[in-house]
Amino acid sequence: MLIACLKEGVGYIRVCPIVQTRYFAIVISCILHLVVRITVFIDQSKDNNAETSSLATYIVYLSMMDLIYSDELIPFDCSQLSILAKFIVELLLTVFMGEVCLIAFWSNIEMITLSLLNSHIDTDDQTLQAIHSYLLIALSLFISWIVSLETNRMEKLCSLFEFAKQIKVESHQKGSARLH
Question: How confident is the model at residue 12 (pLDDT cuts 50, 70, 90)?
């Protein structure tokens, strides 16, 4: 895709999907929240944080990033902004929205499901944690499915695989052309 953007010329690069600042903002936000596990805007205390499966959290967070990816974050025309200014605004919005998703939304769901399980199921802690983890994974997959319907995720994945297939064919053609 980047090669196609470069072939089209400098004017096309501005709208080329691979160099849109949104991608980089999403990647940096994912690294901050999922790998380094830090928050910038919202303090996550132990009171609003249940010890739960990371898999469910990753699924919900990546679904939120898919939602951010599919929509424009900046509600105004930012064609006059420099790429750096647009990147900074999109990064700040992406990080903030990711934190709201994780802390205000998902942590509350974790706490509510845990308290409901504690009040309705009388079992040992290990079994309760296992049930809680499986329930959260099921909820996160349901949320991911709803988001995928909104963002046409399957269509994106199909086009990504077609793009990878096209690159493979082009590299194979170039390799066979060198042999002749």
Answer: very low
